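Note to self: keep these together.
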Amino acid sequence: MSRAQKQIRDFSRMRLMFVGGVFFLFWASLWVRAGFLQIVQGPQLAEQALRQHMASEYDRGKRGVILDRNGQLLAKSVEFVAVSAVPKEVKNPEEAANALAKIFGVPPKDILRKLTSHSNFVYLARRVNDRAAAQVKALNIPGVTLATEYGRSYPNKQMAGQLLGFVGYDDQGLEGLEKFFEPQLAGKKAKYVVQRDASGRRLYLDAQGREMANADGADVRLSIDSQIQFFAEEALAKAVVDNKAKAGTCIVVHVKSAEILAWANYPFFNPNGGSDSDPKAARNRLALDVLEPGSTMKPILIAAALQEKVVRPETTYNCEKGQWNFHNIATIRDTHPYDVLPVNKILRWSSNIGAAKIGMDLGAPRLHAYFEKVGFGQPTGLPLPGEAKGLLRPLSAWSKLDLATNSFGQGIGVTPVQLAQAFHIVANNGVRKPLRLVLDPVQDNAYWPEVRVFDPQVARTVQQMMREVVEEEKGTGVKAHIDGLELGGKTGTAQKAKATGGYGDKYLADFVGFIPAVDPEYMILVMVDEPEPNHYGGVVAAPAVREVAIKSLSYLGRMPESVKLAQEQRPAPAARSQAQGPTGSAPDVAEVLGVAFPPMNLSVNGAEVPNLVGLPLRKASEILASKGVVPSLKGSGLVVGKQNPAAGTPWNAVEKEPFTLWLAKAS
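Structure:
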């Protein structure tokens, strides 16, 4: 081997050794680095990695539902999509803001401000629709995520809207029962572990804590009956609209249980609009409006006077022929020039002068004490946020004129529900029992002890006097009369005070009804604010009470069978004539019962609608109720004179149109 060849071989060997040494040093450095990371920095890096890929997040369970007494949904939670972001994870905020702004229809600067904030978490949009959510998902922007959140839905729209209230965007109750029962309804806050993969997608690990079943809020069941609530709202709206009034309220109470079956305010309020709705429409007038009750105060006054043995039903008072100069201070007037009247007729014909004189005999201390006993001047204790306590001035502030005017309902302010509570005492034979609005969870004030305010005989005497208001000739509440059923009631026509002092030309018309009159089972109160041009409670509010009573009793199957069946009252053949059609007025029962009806097939198990014409309303309602049908009632009386759909119509066709019964009066 030549020397040149030997030099070349040595150079190649050195070069190979050099390259091998370089690779050895490189791999050695990697092993040293790996060892350093694994052994020295391993725990610290593992903790950092865990913080990047594993995180604790918080969520709330679903909000509880609100149900009526029969389990019908009044408020429920539904799922929506919320778009949120972690600003520090968004790589290109300007580009992301422009893209998202087009989807949400907002200025890009609003989105950019959130994406460049120093917050760890921001909402970009709440309750977005499915289309927008799909568009956001398609963008696949790092740091921008979609999550499910819950919002409130009220399937019956305006039904009991002011009572239910509404919730905000954070699913927190802001008004009404939603606010009062926030602790029970709200979903509990739950902590869970979330893992993110390399793309930032979240993986929920149920085994590490995301068990949300126990985080859902509790349900609340009301005493309200949705069907009776509908009847009350329908009749109230008609009374307010027909009389060009500003507003109105209606409450229906089952006397023995003290459970409120209907709670209606008009104008209506749809809580689906939430905080964006008109605040005036959201006002729960039954609990917040403080009004002078007017003549509806007289049964309470007379019950107190009877209880204290100041008067008896036959005690007479000079009603001064309709005008009384009271101690040269003021003139008290009646709507008619009454002369001498006994106590029962003072109530029947609603004499202010007679009531004032009874109040003077009773005296301010005792009258004021009874006002407190029936609950005036204090909240009822119902679960109503911000419930007004009314206006009952201290006894020391009463003058002689105050005593006289308070006796017929002027100078004292009560809420409609306070007035209902006071009348419930009379209806419940003298026992004050807290009104109930909630069945489950049990309402707090339901535990209050029952207190006897009036003796049973005193309460029964006042009930009988209230019967005369509706059933006797010239009674002020005769427009509430229902054939075959004795009702009791009291009208009220209160002149409203002006903001500047004194009384103006606006009135409050109200009527409270007992069904039946003596030992009543149901109580209905209707108030109509500022009706025009007629402002008398017996004309404006009494017909609404009658309408609610007829429909509610028919629905409940409690309408008395006081009218004989067709075959027992058929007139002579010469008197027979055909009843009018659906567009005509309700036919008279003498005409209807003159028609030779075919034998009635009352079975609801068949495929066709039975013939209900000639049946008592109660029986017809029971037949339809067994089929799940609640009819619309037209006309007056207690006998079915016409039906639509007609007998023989297939039951499946009934779902396509309302079932209507035209009622006839007994001859």
